[in-house]
Amino acid sequence: MRFFLRDETDARLRAFGETRSRALRRTAVGCYALMLVMQLVTLLTFHGEPTGDASRYVGDALRCLREGHFYPTASDFVGGGTAGTGYVNLLILLFRLTGSVRAAYWTNLLLVQLLLASVLFLAYRATRSEDVCARTAIIFCLSVPYWAEICVARTEILFTALAFLALALLYRRHGLPFVTGVLLAAANWVRPLGLAFLAAALWSLLYGKAKWHAYVRLLAGVLAAVAAISLFTYRSSGEFVYQPTVSSGNLLIGSNEDADGSYDEIVFSPGKAGYIPPQEKAQMTYKQINARYSAAAKQWIRENPGRYLALMPKKLFYMYIMDTYSGDVYFDNDVKTSGREYVTELLAAVRGQGRTLTWGDAVICWGQAFYMLTFALFLCGVIRSMRRGYWRSLSFLYGVFLIGTAMTMLTVGSGRYHFPYLPILQITAAAWWQSAAISVRARRKGTTFCGAAADRAEETGESSTV
């Protein structure tokens, strides 16, 4: 255990130095201004209607608004299940206040600013480098999902903002473990991935050598919020349920005869393992539907363990290879940019063999290229953090990435599923960037370590603990 809890103050100073570059800060401010401009342009020019999951969330919220109650009700547990529960209730509140779905988009804009602040705070606490923070801001602000996803009424932004805010509050000098627990439970109410961030929070307390009562307060916050949400759901629906109830459907999508690792719903077509006649399904509860989906998936896994394992690399590929899922908004949701069909059409247009290229195509091409660069630097950053000895400081982020990815591999891969982990890619990539810049600077000066940084490490013994 001592090996995992070893202090890395000296390693961080070696990797990141003590520079505070004004040029970097100015560049970061410029990139932030660019992100705001792109967000506002996207908001003001988007006139499409919600599609896909967003259409379901908005539809559920409007129905509940008309009927004068919150989500879910007893009827939501018959003929299907609940999804995005916490987010749907936020939509209901916004619709009551404004009567417009655009309020959700402006809320997303504010949540992205909150997410950026949380990410920069965590970047500093993990690396103790202002330059790493500036580089993180540059990478964050140049990432297209933060420009486009604001005009999509989905769970991604709300979940990610709550989760990273929770970790940031835990990483304060005195910490707020109870509030962190409440926020993590609220995030899980929106999207069932909170377990990965809870594990990161517990590891952060351990790495920071926190007292026992910090663990108690963190778990108390989680349990208090889960109990409150469950009671809220029971009062509105008669079901003592906490999180969304459609996970078995995703398990079946990734575990059937036609599964290819991507989010393909052919398994629910007539004659397939997940097909339930509409008349029958309308009379079934979510528990019965989930039981049937789960049984079909588990049976296929038992009968085809090799094929199931062989699908995992494909799921990983589909999850992390593309970053175009938010681009629909640049076509007013008339074009689905996350599929293979769009990529084929785009390549044809680039060669001059199809339609004319649009502004949206240019933004999507930039976003995909920049994402691939960020992901490559993330991988380089993980390797460098291990070689240079500062990986423990970032281990709470690596844990989120690994657990979240593993949870997805068990079900089905999809490009938008990597959205909650984008900040982790960005912080790690920024750390590599800073460390590489310090190494280049040291080689030019003929040194391997900054003497002032070494003296400071010995004098202060500064730590990044909680």
**How would you characterize the largest beta sheet?**
none
Low-confidence residue ranges: 450-466
How many domains? The number is 1
Helix content: 55-70%
**Average pLDDT rating:** 91
Assembly form of the protein? single chain
Describe this structure in words.
- With 466 residues, the chain is an all-alpha fold.
- The chain has one domain.
- Helices cover 67% and strands 0% of the residues.
- The protein contains 20 helices and no strands.
- It has helices at 9-16, 22-45, 52-67, 85-98, 102-127, 130-141, 145-148, 156-170, 177-190, 194-207, 212-237, 247-253, 278-281, 286-303, 305-320, 340-350, 359-388, 391-409, 422-445, 451-460.
- Helix 9 runs antiparallel to helix 10 (194-207).
- The longest helix has 30 residues, at 359-388.
- It is globular and about 75 Å long.
Descriptive terms for the model:
466 residues; mainly alpha; 67% helix; 0% strand; disordered C terminus
Write a compact overview of the structure shown.
The chain has helices at residues 9-16, 22-45, 52-67, 85-98, 102-127, 130-141, 145-148, 156-170, 177-190, 194-207, 212-237, 247-253, 278-281, 286-303, 305-320, 340-350, 359-388, 391-409, 422-445, 451-460. It is mostly helical.
